[in-house]
Amino acid sequence: xxxxxxxxxxxxxxxxxxxxxxxxxxxxxxxxxxxxxxxxxxxxxxxxxxxxxxxxxxxxxxxxxxxxxxxxxxxxxxxxxxxxxxxxxxxxxxxxxxxxxxxxxxxxxxxxxxxxxxxxxxxxxxxxxxxxxxxxxxxxxxxxxxxxxxxxxxxxxxxxxxxxxxxxxxxxxxxxxxxxxxxxxxxxxxxxxxxxxxxxxxxxxxxxxxxxxxxxxxxxxxxxxxxxxxxxxxxxxxxxxxxxxxxxxxxxxxxxxxxxxxxxxxxxxxxxxxxxxxxxxxxxxxxxxxxxxxxxxxxxxxxxxxxxxxxxxxxxxxxxxxxxxxxxxxxxxxxxx
Amino acid sequence: xxxxxxxxxxxxxxxxxxxxxxxxxxxxxxxxxxxxxxxxxxxxxxxxxxxxxxxxxxxxxxxxxxxxxxxxxxxxxxxxxxxxxxxxxxxxxxxxxxxxxxxxxxxxxxxxxxxxxxxxxxxxxxxxxxxxxxxxxxxxxxxxxxxxxxxxxxxxxxxxxxxxxxxxxxxxxxxxxxxxxxxxxxxxxxxxxxxxxxxxxxxxxxxxxxxxxxxxxxxxxxxxxxxxxxxxxxxxxxxxxxxxxxxxxxxxxxxxxxxxxxxxxxxxxxxxxxxxxxxxxxxxxx
Lengths: 337, 286
Fold this sequence. Notes:
The complex is a heterodimer of chains A (337) and B (286).
Chain A: H1 2-17, H2 29-43, H3 47-50, H4 54-61, H5 71-83, E1 91-94, E2 97-98, H6 103-106, H7 114-121, E3 127-129, E4 132-136, E5 142-145, H8 155-164, E6 171-174, H9 183-190, E7 198-205, E8 218-222, E9 236-240, H10 247-256, E10 261-265, E11 273-279, E12 285-295, H11 317-321, H12 326-336
Parallel strand pairs in A: 5-6, 6-9, 9-10
Antiparallel strand pairs in A: 1-2, 1-12, 3-4, 4-5, 7-8, 7-12, 11-12
Helix pairs in contact in A: 9-10
Chain B: E1 2-3, E2 10-12, E3 22-23, E4 32-47, E5 55-69, E6 77-91, E7 98-115, E8 122-138, E9 147-167, E10 170-187, H1 195-200, E11 207-210, E12 215-228, E13 231-246, E14 249-268, E15 273-274, E16 281-282
Parallel strand pairs in B: 2-14, 3-15
Antiparallel strand pairs in B: 1-16, 4-5, 4-14, 5-6, 6-7, 7-8, 8-9, 9-10, 10-11, 10-12, 12-13, 13-14
């Protein structure tokens, strides 16, 4: 009897004071490779959409790892494995380099020349607010270039810009080469083009290490800019290219659902997975798409958003030599027709 | 546990302007034993929401402890209130990444105590304890998951053992005080849930039941109070081990600190009540 009591006491004390297990991480070439493979395996969110057999990637790249290889050699193997994800949000950061998958934009025409717009459409005479530049085109169409969502703007700033376009027939919002940034800034700008509170998309996170362990989609609702701010109701054309990525991609997904907005240009770059950070035993940082953001119809936009029907247009290199941005010209026609 | 007023280290609010007051013989006086401490030591912190690696570094903290015999049965019951804060600075195994931790803690316990006749000078006590912890872990290198809130409210068991001895003329109070939580609630986001989603309004599944399967903690405090006249020098060792798991996220804290501080007994007297010569004073420790 007393032995039982002692056993129960030992069991209880062990249960109350022992720690939950955490896997050991070895700082060796193979240990770091395995840690990288595992963190991607457990957190990456687009295996199914991209039809990637991650186990097969392990079997393909693991034999390339040698215990006596240099850090740069190990980095090359790991970076090559990450590139198989074809994801612009996935990086490996070492003290000497950061891996980056460029195929999502480098395999497509750029369709944007900033100098062309600045010189031939504004003669370098435009308004600048933060990193946004804006002005009125000769056809009385407003033009606003938003190069990123990394610089903070406020409702008041947007109000000044929209008020400047007060007499314009419509507005071109140029998000070509906008690589994204902070979703809150994208929401802030979008709120001036949304007439009422709207479900603009959904968000799903991983609930476990399995490739299909996802939460139920949670609705993302955007509301119009607070009262007293300008809401734009005239026609809007969003100009996009393949380098419209991440938060800019979602901005396009949001505004595309508005009735007065037309998306013109080229398919965006996607990047609809919100990045999640982790690290390897050797100290290298890892970033990967881990939270999937869907558009308002529940579709994954990781591979990009196509322009509206009949609005696919590229930058004609020959016309550009004559000072014409054929994508801006197309957008002007859409508004003034 | 009986002391006269003369043995109390400090007396506050003692007033001579209350000659018309009632005598207070029926209710014993219950001095407060309080201690201010600072602590420093080493800590291991790991949180798989932020990183799969264990971070090691230093911990610094301050603490306040307050003991008092309880009103309803001061001979047999004491209560203990503790509040404190810790700052942790830890480095990754590769020493290239810093993780900061900031925690505020408060606990209240009531304990039944008993002197052990067979062991002169030894008092044992145990009872329930309520614990509240508010903290945050911050890993600046992370982008969308740079921080993890650490909030827990638990109830559990605590105990203490004291032993009064003398080193020459110096009275020393030795104390050991372990605690374990048994039930409660703690905050933890889901496996891959970013705080952005929580900010959007998805608050489901953030609070988890704390029980020994999901939330384990062992607090242990060993102190020696060296009485120098009216105050005592407190030196000690504090261990705090936490291990929790929820939503596939494991959190671990292993902290070992040296504490040093001052303690003393304080007595609050009501100037409207007159003390009787027979008024009993019941200390939490002595």
